[in-house]
Design brief:
Order of helices and strands of chain B: HHHHHHHHHHHHH
CATH superfamily of one domain in chain A: MetI-like
Low-confidence stretches of chain A: none
Low-confidence stretches of chain B: none
Number of helices of chain A: 13
CATH class of one domain in chain A: Mainly Alpha
Number of domains of chain B: 1
Mean pLDDT of chain A: 81
GO cellular component, one term (chain A): plasma membrane
Number of helices of chain B: 13
InterPro entries (chain A): BPD_transp_1_N, MetI-like, MetI-like_sf
Keywords (chain A): Cell membrane, Membrane, Transmembrane, Transmembrane helix, Transport
CATH architecture of chain B: Orthogonal Bundle
Radius of gyration of chain A: 24 Å
CATH superfamily of chain B: MetI-like
Largest sheet of chain A: none
Family (chain A): Belongs to the binding-protein-dependent transport system permease family.
CATH class of chain B: Mainly Alpha
Shape of chain B: elongated
Strand content of chain A: under 5%
CATH topology of one domain in chain A: MetI-like fold
Largest sheet of chain B: none
Oligomer: heterodimer
Largest interface: A-B, 50 and 41 residues
Distance between the termini of chain B: 36 Å
Strand content of chain B: under 5%
Order of helices and strands of chain A: HHHHHHHHHHHHH
Number of strands of chain B: 0
Structural class of chain A: mainly alpha
CATH architecture of one domain in chain A: Orthogonal Bundle
Shape of chain A: flat
Pfam family, one (chain A): BPD_transp_1
Chain lengths: ~300, ~300
């Protein structure tokens, strides 16, 4: 087990440096003159310019700049954006919103997804199963921003629920945005759980349990559920990371002042440093979640460890 | 047994054993889901190639006097805020969506087939290297990576989006090609070809590739639908296809500001977008079912 964890951690460290280098390079290769962006309308004197170039290491080669950037990132010094504001501060104020939104969406996906999937899987071919299949397919095909926009429209027109989260501090205001954010994951989870349950219901151990005279509820609730949740858990773990990254669309539609909202704002004012920092942070969250899931998966299923 | 009898027996055996592709095609022909999605996709492709077949209205000729008209005989889906005909804009907007979808999937297919074949066929250090690069690219969520790439390219065409989706979207397809190449490599006919003196290129091109492509075709069909959705999302965020090109995502985004007063400008392009994505996902599902021997 220890060897497996060490191997996964090493793989993650490699992926971490690779992805951040890639993101940093993309932004480095593309950005214009950052000093001009920082200065804005005011013309800068040569000496100020030289001092700023010195301060931000802009005279150094690319890899050295990347090393400085990594050093900052690892010591939680995220630097300043093009308007001179601390990015760390920006992220700290936005982070709780995204975390709350993503966790709410996650709870919704886990509870509703597994429940619906198990019910559909145990009644394969029935009306409930077919309805679920069609509905989930429809949800998968409609892009999240369309679902969000239509819900926001309906909510605003008939005054059903708040569609503007800014200024409304209650958790209730986040419920509809969380439903929107989680809709795609929910549909996938339902389908995954359904397939997994139907496959496991045909397994030998279910026949054995039935032959022993166990009641149906116990067979499904204990024997089948435990075995069919393994693929679902893997998917869900990776999904928590992507929910935070995917929040950009939902946060824009419902005006949630979270990470995605800040990212969107940074894109529209072409604030490169903020874009790269937020994307790197989200990539880190994503990688760490993947690592945790992989290790947990190794604990749950011994076959994985000895691959 | 005479030679003629052997040839006859062989011909008979040939008539009774169908290839996997022929079997799959027989299954597909009987599947209504396949026909529904194929007809939708055929219509959309025609729309993208010759939009004039579907409308004679110019999507760029807009009269502010006609702003936000409800659906009527003249404007089937009504007009948007600028007074442009929504139906005409949907017809002309299909081109950008399908171009992005097909071009980026073609890009992904080329990368996936080359890298997957190398990794699966040769194995060893090339396999390890490709696996590590795949890990790295897989660590970047598609939407976020595309945002970083596109926020820096100011080119008014579909190519930046195609580039972003292609560069970030090849990982799953590559892994699938790799694993199906590995399983095809161990088949008897590959050993036979090698003993007959075929070189690596011939084995890969004539024997492994045709037999290892089915799973990746399925995945690419579904990916095509997803890429169209991602393009619309990027356009919605204002960093997708730039310039004057009409796209569904941009039209939806533009209409959302007025969303409380008029539904049409948001709903109609959204419905077409969803229908397109749905058609590709259904086609992929149908093809997958046809190729999966377990489901027979």
């Amino acid at each position: 087990m220890a060897r497996y964890i060490v191997r996964r951690v090493l793989q993650m460290v490699l992926a971490f440096f690779g992805t951040t280098l890639l993101v940093y390079w993309l932004m480095f290769a593309a950005s214009g003159d950052p000093i001009a962006a920082l200065a804005g309308e005011r013309p800068l004197s040569e000496s100020t310019r030289a001092a700023l170039i010195q301060e931000f290491h802009l005279d150094q080669p690319f890899l050295v700049q990347y090393a400085y950037y990594m050093k900052g990132l690892l010591t939680l010094d995220l630097g300043v954006n093009t308007s001179g504001r601390e990015i760390g501060e920006l992220v700290a104020s936005a982070w709780p919103w995204t975390l709350r939104l993503a966790l709410l969406a996650f709870v919704f996906v886990v509870v509703a997804g597994i429940a619906l999937g198990v019910i559909a899987g145990t009644r394969r071919g029935g009306a409930f199963d077919n309805t679920t299949l069609v509905l989930t397919l429809v949800v998968i095909s409609i892009p999240v921003f369309v679902i969000g926009q239509v819900l926001a429209l309906v909510g605003a027109r008939y005054d059903l629920f708040p569609t503007n989260v800014v200024g409304d501090d209650s958790l209730a205001a986040l419920i509809v945005p969380a439903l929107v954010l989680g809709s795609l994951s929910l549909a996938t989870t339902v389908r995954l759980a359904r397939t997994s349950v139907t496959e496991n219901l045909r397994a030998d151990y279910v026949r054995t349990a039935r032959a022993k005279g166990l009641i149906h509820r116990r067979i499904v609730g204990v024997h089948v559920l435990r075995n069919s949740l393994i693929p679902v858990i893997t998917f869900l773990g990776v999904e928590l990371g992507s929910l935070m990254g995917g929040a950009i669309v939902t946060e824009k539609i419902f005006n949630v002042p979270g990470i995605g909202f800040q990212l969107y704002k940074a894109i529209s004012i072409e604030d490169g440093p903020t874009v790269v920092t937020i994307v790197s942070l989200l990539v880190i969250v994503y990688l760490v979640m993947n690592l945790i899931v992989d290790v947990l998966y190794g604990v749950l299923d011994p076959r994985i460890r000895y691959e | 047994m005479s030679e003629a009898a052997i040839a006859e027996a062989a011909a008979e055996a040939g008539a009774n054993t169908r290839s996997l592709a022929a079997d799959a095609w027989r299954d597909l022909r009987r599947n209504p889901v396949f026909w529904v999605s194929a007809v939708i996709i055929a219509l959309l492709v025609t729309m993208a190639v010759v939009p004039r077949l579907f409308t004679s209205t110019d999507p760029h000729s807009c009269r502010l006097r006609d702003s936000l008209l409800p659906p009527s005989g003249e404007h089937w889906f009504g007009t948007n805020l600028q007074g442009c005909d929504i139906y005409a804009r949907i017809v002309y907007g299909s081109r950008a969506s399908l171009e992005v979808g097909f071009l980026s999937v073609a890009f992904v297919a080329v990368i996936a087939v080359i890298l997957g074949m190398i990794a699966g066929y040769y194995g060893g250090w090339s396999d390890a290297l490709i696996a590590r690069v795949t890990d790295i690219v897989l660590g970047i969520p598609l939407l976020l990576g595309a945002i970083v790439i596109l926020s820096s390219i100011e080119l008014p065409s579909v190519w930046p989006v195609v580039l972003a989706l292609g560069l970030l979207g090849w990982t799953t397809a590559t892994r699938i090609v790799r694993s199906s190449v590995i399983s095809a490599k161990q088949q008897d006919y590959v050993q036979a070809a090698r003993m007959l003196g075929a070189n690596n290129r011939r084995i890969m091109g004539r024997h492994i590739a045709p037999n290892a492509m089915a799973p990746v075709i399925v995945i690419l069909t579904i990916t095509l639908g997803q890429f169209i959705a991602v393009e619309a999302t990027l356009s919605f965020l204002g960093i997708g296809v730039k310039g004057n090109t009409i796209t569904w995502g941009k039209d939806i985004a533009a209409a959302t500001a007025r969303v409380t007063t008029s539904l049409g400008p948001v709903l109609f392009p959204s419905a077409f977008l969803a229908l397109t994505v749905l058609a590709f996902i259904m086609l992929g599902d149908a093809v997958r079912e046809a190729f999966d021997p377990k489901l027979r």
